[in-house]
Amino acid sequence: MTDSSQSFDQVRYNLCEYLEGRVAEVSLDVFKSSVLPTLSPGALNKLDDTVAHLVSNDRWNDFLEDPAHSTDREDVVFANLPKLIDNIAKAVAPVLQVGCEENSVTWKAGVYPSPAKNFRIDGNLHGTYYLANIAPTTTETPPTADDLSLAQSAHNVVWLYELKKAYDAFSVQGNRGNIIRAASHVLNDRRRRFTFALTIENCTARLWFFSRFLVMVSDSFDWIKDRTHFIHFIAALSIASEYQLGFDPSIERVIEDNRIKYNIKYCGKWYRVLEDLSDFKAGWILGPATRVWKVKELKDKSVDSTLIGRIRVMKDVWIDEDALSEKEILDDIISKINVVNPVATVDPALAADHFIEIMADVRLETTNPSGEQEGDCTSDIFRGVLPSRGSRGISVSQLSETAENGMFNASYSQRPYPEASPAHLERKNPQFKGCTARQHRRILYAEYGKPLHEILCDHEKLFRSLGGIGKGKIFVSSTYTRVLSH
Question: Does the global pTM surpass 0.70?
């Protein structure tokens, strides 16, 4: 989806064009009941009272006037927002933390540590909340640009926010583009299954959810005066486990020789990722997020653990929730050899030797905070009814010169005419195209083949391999069109 040679605006433009019609707009009640960590009814009734000391004249003490009234930049106007969020989390803790001490994680406020030219555009404020207890450095502060690249620092992100002090079409579309761009960085991490986000334009806020199967945004609300939804969002995330925040508990990051490496728990054993064999389009916000790794079993999961056994290949992928697994497809193919159209020269007993052996193919599961097994799939992650095709959506595509009365400019870097308003954006809203329910699977293959680049000098083997690939491609394409493979 992204190209490192593209500019920030180009990447953001491509992401937004791809997601046009794929972002569902839902009510706040649906958003909170379907994807946010659940709060008990008793706790919900006490939330407003627990933060009463943070309010004056029916407004937050730190925001006694609307951000739009200030002449300062966004980073100055919203300087107190991290402190407010932290105070809310601390105030609701006594009500919420009963029985949650072992599950919840610590997160702290911070801004992206990358250089201004990379992630601070036109004075806009881009922020994040990151995990304080798994920072890749020895300190609890976010890594600096010199420590890790932007993509690596995004590995710590719990949830994101984008802030604008104005509420106009330019600010709304700018926030949408920026939050989509930031979410694509977060979801490009091997450990991420989904992430949450918040956008604010003056007093108007929306809650966001980004995953492999759905991008969802809530109705807008006044986060300064209508505080209940804002408090609920902060409270729910403040007691969440890493799994509920979208992290994959079966993958651990470790530091070895000042480099980030990954250990993967699979079928009761730990494996070390030796090399990324393929991650084509794995960073797409919606899609299978297919990654293929060269791995080797670990004696235990310690950083300096001994590698044992043969090199294996492991695939991590999100397939349709009702699709057959790769192993089921392969077993079905082998079982039908010489059954439909018998070929005398084909020995079914030897057929399996011509396929890659699949040692294991399982849907990932975890134990939820209630102690129950929960599948890593759409139906378990999304507790409510999925938004249907044709339901409400929101426009996230770039501002267009062809919009009504030419009010929008095609570039994010130039502000449209002053009379442009969010109302014009609402008239552009497309219908939601629907989503694909997915399940998260991991497959372990017994063999690790030889890459083509390693046999370039052996022309006979190279051309024989290429010929086999051509035949295999025809076979795979035909089975795919018949919905036999994916």
Answer: yes
In degrees rounded to 5, what are phi and psi of residue 336? -100, 0
Residue 253 pLDDT more than 90?
no
Token pair recorded at residue 430:
């497309």
Local structure of 178: helix, strand or coil: helix
Buried b or exposed e, range 441-452, using 16+ CB within 10 angstroms = bbbbbeebeeee
Partnered with residue 363 across adjacent β-strands are 441
Give yes or no for a contact between 9 and 413, defined as CB atoms under 8 angstroms apart. yes
**DSSP character for 21?**
T
Spatial contact of 153 and 142, defined as CB atoms under 8 Å apart: yes
Residue 143 pLDDT exceeds 60: no
- Spatial separation of the C-alpha atoms in residues 296 and 307, rounded to whole Å: 6
What is the percent of the chain where pLDDT is above 70?
70
- The DSSP secondary structure of 368-425, one letter per residue, reads -TTS-EEESBHHHH--SPPPPTTSBB---SPP-TTSGGG-S-S-TTS---TT--HHHH
DSSP secondary structure of 26-46: E-HHHHHHHTSPP--HHHHHH
Residue 241, helix vs strand vs coil? coil
